Amino acid sequence: MSKFKVQVGDITAGDDKLFLISGPCVIEEESTMMRTAEKIKEVTEKLDIPVIYKSSFQKDNRSSVDYYMGPGMDEGLRILEKIKKEFGFPLLTDIHYPDQAKPAADVVDVLQIPAYLCMQTTLVVEAAKTGKTVNLKHGQFLAPENMAKPTAKIESTGNKNIILTERGYTFGYNDLVIDPRSFYDMGKIGYPVVFDITHAIRKYGIPSSDPSGGARQYLPVLGRAGVAAGVDGIFVETHPCPSDALCDAASQLDMDQLEEFLKPLIELHEVELKYRK
Fold first, then answer.
1. Are 123 and 111 in contact (CB under 8 A)?
2. Do residues 117 and 123 touch, judged by C-beta distance below 8 A?
3. Most exposed residue of 175, 241, 260, 265, measured as fewest CB within 10 angstroms of its CB?
4. pLDDT at 277 (0 to 100)
5. How confident is the model at residue 272 (pLDDT cuts 50, 70, 90)?
6. Domains of the chain (ranges plus CATH)?
7. What GO molecular function annotations does the UniProt record carry, in alphabetical order (predicted)?
């Protein structure tokens, strides 16, 4: 789909191989993080799918000050660095403020701009100036073709290491809807396109710890739809016990289900490639 290929560690985003971004939503205790990384390593090596390990040291958009926001940058980056050394994964994490860009870039390979911050010029430009890949998440309030605007802000620094991620449009109240046309329109911008499947099924306004705060039953059909539409990568948050997760408990995938979830998507991607060519 993409015109430009982006190198992230030993992964080439935008070539003919579907890639995965996966990990717990937010960094929790070290044992949980290492256990998840071990399982992701096992599954992705078995299925031969490249993976970028994702987890956030800070979630600054929780709906209550009483909810867990993460361990903070210093401790979070320490845990991510340990995961990288032990498992060899390229790493991705969110940043929310411009002064987080450089220290995060010293550890991770991809700086992710949250969807609701994608038009924040200073944040996006500071991330781009690090030279690291920037994963720009599609704001729920933007038409997909308008993602060319924040993309151009990154390009203005000379950085063309860009990934664009779809995670749904706000539709009515507290619901997100995926429009497959967005994969096509964002693909025309020229960079690898990723489908964030697990965030697309969140029910906003309902606490993520509430079982009704997500619609997991739609994960397989949405995943197949996105891959059939030609995305370059998929984003699936996973956890050893989602119901006990400290963030997005209602939408993360149980890591023991990851292998079976990925198998049809990999097969479908091979079919889609034939039609693409």
1. no
2. yes
3. 260
4. 63
5. very high
6. 6-276 (3.20.20.70)
7. 3-deoxy-8-phosphooctulonate synthase activity
